[in-house]
Specification:
Layout: H1 8-19, H2 23-52, E1 55-57, E2 76-82, E3 90-96, E4 99-106, H3 111-122, H4 126-139, E5 143-145, H5 163-166, E6 171-177, H6 187-198, H7 200-209
Antiparallel strand pairs: 1-2, 2-3, 3-4, 4-6, 5-6
Helix pairs in contact: 1-2, 4-7
Length: 221
């Protein structure tokens, strides 16, 4: 299937789901989700796969076991690509009633990865490279996000170089577009591809300096 854009009916589907997040609504409109959300997203990811890799499409159902919010369905559809063998650094895309959202980087790092990340940030060569890339992305309109400490990390001084980056426990960059006509056209593929290419240097830095965790996988509850 060739990607032709995200149909407006897909955004309308999510507007309805936001108003009525129930099994009844989902069951009645499942066909609209399949046609207007999932199918075009799969087509987009298939066209991006030769350059970025195979994507994982997230389930549309929320995990409500440990949440006070018991609404059963996500009001967006997302997918992620992890570069094979790189350990960390990924690309993400999401469609919702709010429009299109893309991001890249690392959303969760284990303690051994955080330690390697901070050593690299403190390094005068690798740290400067990351700072330059983060500054470039921010200047280009990307929002730099990630879990951060409010205090100075243990083992570092309050006057350490690149202290803001040292506080991070994860690091990713995001960009969003509100609904527009081009979202319903093949141009949306070009926008995602261009955005993901902008994130390649950040992901490469994370892969080279942080890598995969050596900790045992967490037991599922």
């Amino acid at each position: 299937m060739t990607f032709e854009g995200f149909p407006d009916d897909g955004l309308v589907f999510y507007e309805g789901l936001e108003a009525d997040n129930s099994k009844t609504y989902w069951t009645q409109h499942k066909g609209a989700y399949d046609r207007n959300v999932k199918a075009p997203l799969v087509a987009l990811l298939d066209e991006l796969a030769p350059e970025f890799g195979t994507a994982k499409i997230f389930r549309p159902y929320r995990d409500v076991r440990f949440s006070n919010d018991k609404t059963p369905y996500k009001t967006h559809q997302g997918a992620v690509v992890h570069a094979d063998g790189h350990g960390t650094g990924a690309w993400y895309v999401q469609i919702s009633a709010d429009g299109l959202h893309v991001s890249g980087g690392s959303w969760r790092l284990e303690s051994d990865q955080v330690a390697r990340y901070r050593r690299a940030v403190a390094d005068d060569v690798q740290g400067l490279r990351l700072q330059a890339e983060v500054d470039r992305l921010a200047a280009a309109g990307w929002e730099i996000r990630g879990e951060k400490l409010t205090r100075v990390p243990a083992g570092y001084s309050a006057d350490a170089e690149r202290l803001d980056l040292l506080r991070h426990k994860s690091l990713h960059a995001s960009r969003s577009w509100e609904p527009a006509e081009w979202l319903h056209e093949p141009r949306a593929l070009d926008e995602v591809r261009s955005a993901w290419r902008e994130l390649r240097t950040l992901n490469t830095w994370l892969a080279d300096n942080v890598g995969a965790t050596t900790k045992e996988p967490r037991a599922r509850r």
